[in-house]
Amino acid sequence: MGGTVDVHTHYVPRGWPDLGPGQPWLRIDSERDAMILVGDSEFRRVQDDCWDAGVRLADMDADGVARQVVSPTPVFFSYDLPGAEAAAVCRIFNDLALEICAPGGERLVPFCQVPLQDPDLACVELDRAVAAGHRGVEIGNHVGDRDLDDAGIITFLQHAADSGVPVFVHPWDMHTSPRLDRWMARWLAGMPAETHLSVLAMILGGVFDKVPDSLRICFAHGGGSFPFWLGRFENAWHRRGDVIATSAQPPSAYVDRFSVDSVVFDPRALRTLVDTMGVSQVMVGSDYPYPLGERPVGKVVDDADFLSESDRAALRWGNASRFLGS
Question: Which of 58, 89, 115, 308 has the highest CB neighbour number within 10 Å of its CB?
Fold first, then answer.
């Protein structure tokens, strides 16, 4: 097809109804600027590229991006609420996401959110959102202490697979401590660790042994620290099977069951990612429009001189087209 497909971007609506005490709300500071607050605490400053399709499309044109997957900002997941309340929040944001994406036509590909703490309600909202126009779903990498091998979450993943809906997994709700609260360490160290832990849960928890091969699932931020440490994981599976050999096959047998995005910034890291996961399992992502994202989109792919032109085509759009089913 040509043109990059960016599988990792986020949106924030310019306003939403009052969600109740302690929940996210938006302070509008100007036509272009706003602040997300959670209760009384400032969470993140955002700009109109979060909600204005025109600004988003102009940035896409500047970077040669043909399509963007537009997913929720994880602070809106509402996994801490009772299921019915969270389902109501999901409906609000999912409908607002469709309004944000509508001016972009096929170029803006909306992914919904679901109340993952309640598998039945999550499946219901997934079906409703997809029928309304969403093309996939973004989920957090855990719900409290329940990781992706939780029985209820497996039920949801099976439903997504049976429905042909791609799943994008984003780390969130990282632990806080005096050590992690300095220097954005929750984002710089906590996020990669969270994603790594959940990939381990998918493998050792037997999720890939239980869900069909048709499940299309992608992990953000290059799979976190997992690709770099697959050798350690493999060694432990073989040498300490009495502790961790709970999956039907060794860890390396599952790397073709999931994808990762390319948000690793350095060609040396991308080489490790491609060597570990395989060219077919890596897709361009940017984390647009946030400051820790990549601009121009796909720069790390362009800078990677070890990639062939066919490799670049796979990373830039071929693999994403397969992931999205189009």
Answer: 115
Least confident residue range of 4-8, 186-190, 214-218, 220-224:
186-190
Category of 287 on φ-ψ map: left (φ > 0), alpha (ψ -120 to 50) or beta: left
Segment 208-218, tens digit of pLDDT: 999 999 999 99
Q: In whole angstroms, how far apart are CA 138 and each of 58, 250, 283?
A: 24, 27, 16
Domain 4-10+63-324: CATH architecture, name and number where available: Alpha-Beta Barrel (3.20)
Alpha-carbon distance 122 to 207, whole Å?
A: 18
How confident is the model over 218-277, as pLDDT tens digits?
999 999 999 999 999 999 999 988 888 788 899 999 999 999 999 999 999 999 999 999
Query: Domain extents for the chain?
Result: 4-10+63-324
Please check whether residue 49 is in contact with residue 55, taking contact to mean a CB–CB distance below 8 angstroms. yes
Helix (H) / strand (E) element for 272: namely helix 267-277
